Give the backbone structure.
Amino acid sequence: MKKNENIVWHNNKVSAEDRRRVLGQKGLVVWFTGLSGSGKSTIAVELEKLLNEAGRAVYLLDGDNIRHGINADLGFTDEDRNENIRRISEIAALFCDAGIITLVSFISPFRKMREFARERAGDENFIEVYVSTDFETCRQRDPKGLYQKDISHFTGKDSSYEEPLHPEIVLETVSCDPTQCAEIVREEINRREVESV
Amino acid sequence: MKKNENIVWHNNKVSAEDRRRVLGQKGLVVWFTGLSGSGKSTIAVELEKLLNEAGRAVYLLDGDNIRHGINADLGFTDEDRNENIRRISEIAALFCDAGIITLVSFISPFRKMREFARERAGDENFIEVYVSTDFETCRQRDPKGLYQKDISHFTGKDSSYEEPLHPEIVLETVSCDPTQCAEIVREEINRREVESV
């Protein structure tokens, strides 16, 4: 008998549960939305650090690793912004399936696309965090100098931002510093994990 | 003094090294290439299981989670196949950066695109595995019944497959069963990790 006649071409894939056993945690998508300058990235970076220091497997998807990589072919029209968020949603769902606590920080102005992200990750794995800093405060902070420039399709000016209707968390950065905001989100992550055991 | 005047908007992101400390491993991309029916997915699934059972953080990107998700908008023309592989390359590089041993199983017929994948992950993090089963054997196995159909742009028939020139590993599935093949790749993964300590 030839050797390869023995081959059983089985297909028992590793499950999300198998991965959970290795990582000791459940995959989640924590989706930060808000205007440019609202503070969402600062809070996400702070949260990433808190979780990493606590020994959690965490990864942050933001402009730095998405806009210059997989979405380098996209611009800022409504259509391209939707495609930007569609791809990020799919990537976040993959990371979540891999068992990673996945932090996503993008303006993501349209409700429909944030709902798509939730659907792809699964509602039980999704935490929408609305960083609700008002336009005037964002304009004054303007950490990237964007409000000063004459940019077309700029969210809050000539492109609309649709506030979340039922976010899991609303963060007020005027009364709360980034570490306090990150702690609020961490508590929700811990609560989700305890619930799912 | 108002509370938010204290805010330091720092940006000390968690590094790949920080993630490595948590996961106890280095991120890698293991890229399986070969004809349809060559056995690459069977070997990748086997390897995924071996690594998961050994307590490693591993994730498999293949048709099941990519073609129906992020790349659902793409067809099978050369242009779309290149875009398919471009996006998978970027996703694999993100997973690698996150510290995951990332297995990728796609025909990926074009040398240029596999080189792109290597470049994005970083040469030191990339293992190209050529599953070198010959066309006739693949046609006889035909696990998906694809060779029997009259599919246009079918790799090995009317669409070309460019064999790797310098793959890290060549697997001969005619003389080796999937478990043996997976073990060969696992040894290379272990060797890479020892080297990188």
